[in-house]
Amino acid sequence: MKFHLAAALILALGSGGQAFAQDATPPDVTPTPVFPKPASIPVKERIPNARHYGLPRPPSQSLDGTPVTLDNDLDNVPLDQTMADLADPSALDQLSSANKADSVPQKYYWHSFKSGNYCHIKKDGHDWYGWQKDGAFHWVLWSGGRFWWRDDYADRWIYYDQGYWWWQNPKTASFQVFLQDGHYHVCDANGVLGDDLMRTGTEEVATQPVEKDTPTDRDKNWDKGLGGGKEMGAKGPSDD
Known about the structure:
Blueprint: H1 2-23, E1 71-72, H2 81-86, H3 89-101, E2 109-113, E3 116-123, E4 126-133, E5 136-143, E6 146-151, E7 156-161, E8 164-168, E9 175-178, E10 184-187, E11 193-196, H4 197-200, E12 202-203, E13 210-211
Parallel strand pairs: 1-5
Antiparallel strand pairs: 2-3, 3-4, 4-5, 5-6, 6-7, 7-8, 8-9, 9-10, 10-11, 12-13
């Protein structure tokens, strides 16, 4: 008798639990952040999108004195290992000292760190750091305690933070992140990734939304690092 009563009680509780679960409103699904929270840059530390600085000329010789003839790379967002190494906390300590020690304007100062050599020059009161890659020279601007790069096609300054290049809308609290696929993507303040702005066909720029061409077959290979290019701001690292 005791066994049958216990079994009946278990069945009753189980049945009631199922009924409650069916009647209950399912909880809202919260998107999972896949990126670090974007750094919100105070207005006084931002570089206005309308501001233009002339890039330094590439140095005429490398660290060991070997002559080189290079052009500045204006199209490709710096996404290589040298960029990541420059932003390493231990490298930033070195940069702080270099900014003070490398005091002669327009003089190229070479330094070595991890993946290779980089060059520092003071031009018009600004600190620029650059390095050679794939037959061209990349420059990034050090300002307000972080690195910046100008995407001339998208008419904006983007900043490097936690391994990614970001753009913060100057009028709202929204962000965009530039990924290896060569596209800008919406990202909210919590690190939740949104639309691929190449796919939606629009891009928030400093002035107004810009209509984009219909993605080509090549653009559909974004997950393989083959997309991007002039259609969506600067070129990605895989573009020629």
